[in-house]
């Protein structure tokens, strides 16, 4: 099964926001990137925006 290719985004945020995000990520034992993804997924869910998940099944089975 091929690995899922991730995308890169670049954002600028205030240092205090980054420090807060880093603190929360450390409390939850997550990387900064994973914490951002979790927050974005939660916000999409609260807003009613569906995020389609890639199929993990092997299509040649």
Helices and strands, in order, run as: HH
Work out the helicity level.
40-55%
Radius of gyration: 15 Å
The low-confidence runs, each spanning 5 or more residues with pLDDT under 50, are none
Helix-strand makeup class: mainly alpha
Identify the overall geometry.
globular
Percent of residues in β-strands: under 5%
What is the residue-mean pLDDT, rounded to a whole number? 88
Number of DSSP helical runs: 2
Cα separation of the termini? 11 Å
| Number of DSSP strand runs | 0
Largest sheet: none
Q: How do you describe this structure in short?
A:
By secondary structure, the chain is mainly alpha-helical. It has a domain at 15-47. The chain has helices spanning 15-27, 32-47.
Walk me through this protein's architecture.
With 61 residues, this protein is an all-alpha fold. The protein has a domain of 33 residues. Helices cover 48% and strands 0% of the residues. It is built from 2 helices and no strands. Helix 1 crosses helix 2. The radius of gyration is 15 Å and the shape is globular. 0% of the residues are buried. The model has no long low-confidence stretch (mean pLDDT 88).
């Amino acid at each position: 099964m091929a690995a899922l290719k991730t995308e890169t985004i670049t954002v600028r945020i205030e240092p205090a926001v980054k420090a807060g995000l880093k603190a929360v990520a450390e409390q939850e034992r997550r990387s900064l990137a994973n914490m951002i993804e979790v927050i974005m997924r939660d916000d999409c869910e609260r807003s009613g925006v569906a995020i389609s998940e890639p199929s993990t099944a092997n299509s040649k089975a």
